[in-house]
Amino acid sequence: MKRLAAAMVAALAVTTAAIAQESVQGEQIPPPAATTQDYPADGEPAQQAAPDAIAPPAQPAQTIPPPSRPRPEINTDEGGLWGMSDRAEQEARNSGQLERDPALNAYVREVACRVASDACGDIRLYVMNRPYFNASMAPNGYMEVWSGLLLRVEDEAQLAFVLGHEIGHYRERHALAMLRAVRGRAGAAMVFSIIAAGAGVGIVGDIVYLGTIASVFGFSRENESQADMLGYDHAVAARYDPHAGHMLWSSLLQETQASDNPDVRRQETRASIFRTHPLSADRIEALTARAAQATGGETQRARYRAAIRPFLDSWLRSDLRRRDYGQTWFLLDRLAAAGEDLGVVEYYRGEINRLRRGDGDRERAFQHYTNAIAYPDAPAATWRELGDLALRDGRNAEAVEQFTAYLARAPQAVDRALIEARIQQLSGGGQ
Ligand SMILES: [Zn+2]
Questions:
Q1: Taking all residues of the chain, what is their mean pLDDT, rounded to a whole number?
Q2: Measured between alpha carbons, how far is 67 from 13 in angstroms, rounded to an integer?
Q3: Mind listing the pLDDT tens digit for each residue in 153-193?
Q4: Cα(360) to centroid(ligand 1), Å
Q5: 76 C-alpha to center of ligand 1: Å?
Q6: What is the pTM of this model?
Q7: Ligand 1 centre and the CA of 393: distance in Å?
Q8: Full residue range of the structural domain in which residue 316 is found
Q9: Is the terminal CB of the chain with fewer CB neighbours within 10 Å at N or C?
Q10: Closest CA to 410 of 385, 388, 381
Q11: 49 and 85: one domain?
Q12: Ligand 1 centroid to residue 22 C-alpha, Å
């Protein structure tokens, strides 16, 4: 009950816009507590070191127009919603998962503003390293975009569509409608007691479980369909590819089918899960029909990939934390479809094999790591894994060679002392 209460409060606080989780991920797999410290790979160089100073992400101040919407009175229900959004935003600002890279923030913001047009000045953007497909825009203008979404979006047009969808919820005040509908069903006293129960520190802003409770407090079917159409209209008006929306939803649905978890795979056919959410298939159909006659529009695929490329390694590391290797493998296939970033992709295919530990996985891991190092973008850790495999097979000279190559590529590695000791033991102590 406490978890539910917290989740419900979180839903109210940040307006539940977990698009794909609503429709694709559903509630079957609650995400693991997503602190970046939870899953350090053995001896992995720190992937996302917490910065020393807490600062909000870069916002290009000179280009931001004034907000289009005044702050509501605090004693109204909308004012209360803003207050909760403010607290959730504070948590986001201080989160160790916040991506502060100025270039990345400027890029995502630019796309958001291109589709938001006159609501651009309302948006305060936070990019989070969290491995679920999620974006949200709270009533106070605070917007989150998660790395799991950025990895799964194939081009700028798809990003524009998703952000347009979120901005659509914001423009139409769907969060307020949701609050009022829930209060109508549950009674004001219950809603306020839930909010009071969740008002403690660290709970209000806990949106990690947002996707899980989307089915409790999701936007209505009508709201979701409307947001899709608004996202489509805004993206197309900004000269983006009209087919981006239905292509994105389709690939997310396919990823569901690639899941290791049979419950996730079955979701599509179990209508009950979608009782409070439109079926993805319906939404895909509507978007496909809308785009049928449209032509032209930009995808800006190369530009998009260039913007996320520096983060592929750390975001894929986070994606492994979900421990749904079927879905991550599907994602890797999509990332590799145009033959790009194969060093990173092959390394992570190797990682899946290494972590899965099934029959033949060790040999496959070796093969993928070996493929990876033929590409210039192979992560340094690839050589360490090859060293470990050689060591386990008793090929000590090769292990020394691979460990040495690893340290040459990652001189600042957190496990440097450990690897150096191992090299010394193998070459010196081994005679
Ligand atoms: Zn939505």
A1: 79
A2: 20
A3: 999 999 999 999 999 988 988 877 777 777 666 665 555 45
A4: 41
A5: 24
A6: 0.80
A7: 51
A8: 312-332+339-429
A9: C
A10: 381
A11: yes
A12: 8
